[in-house]
């Protein structure tokens, strides 16, 4: 457990890059695009834990059509930050063979996570795989593909809030912050 005074000063000194209102506007636009494309496709929405939790909940509230929900946990950070191999600790339980799948995550940074998850679903029998991330971080260290639905482009800093953690904390914030000086 971290010192609460240190955590509070990280938050109070951080730069707020995206407000709750800006997040909601971006989520509304993403949801409308998803509705236009998938409302008649009975997709399986896949939340990529842990970061995808808030974005998935926010999108689901805006998607009032027939869909199913499942989640995966597949992570490269903390294990091997340079490679694209994922450490899967939870596979989906819903039968997605020949189904349309929508992957939802918080951030598309280098893109290895979303790219590898899409590939896994495609190789294991999904009919088609779409992807959505609230944040796209702007830099030139990325994989070639891009998510089908992106909320906001953000500068290349260490971010937290709205799914993203600072040392395990602050995933719950209704805004996106950058650590001071980073
Ligand atoms: O685009 P990339 O460079 O691959 O990075 C993005 C991934 O990193 C974070 O997850 P992380 O593996 O840290 O796990 P978490 O969701 O539990 O925080 C985030 O939630 C994305 O899944
Ligand atoms: N918390 C956090 N996780 C990430 N995973 C990939 N990029 C980031 C980031 O900027 N912040």
From TrEMBL:
GO terms for biological process: GMP salvage; guanine salvage; hypoxanthine metabolic process; IMP salvage. CDD domains: PRTases_typeI. Keywords: Glycosyltransferase, Transferase. It catalyses: IMP + diphosphate = hypoxanthine + 5-phospho-alpha-D-ribose 1-diphosphate; GMP + diphosphate = guanine + 5-phospho-alpha-D-ribose 1-diphosphate. The keyword Cell inner membrane does not apply. Coiled coil: none annotated. One of its GO terms (cellular component) is cytosol. One of its GO terms (molecular function) is hypoxanthine phosphoribosyltransferase activity. Residues 23-167 form the Phosphoribosyltransferase domain. Pfam families: Pribosyltran (PF00156). PANTHER family: HYPOXANTHINE PHOSPHORIBOSYLTRANSFERASE, HYPOXANTHINE-GUANINE PHOSPHORIBOSYLTRANSFERASE. NCBIfam families: PRK09162.1. This is Hypoxanthine-guanine phosphoribosyltransferase. It comes from Marinomonas fungiae. The lineage of its organism: Bacteria, Pseudomonadati, Pseudomonadota, Gammaproteobacteria, Oceanospirillales.
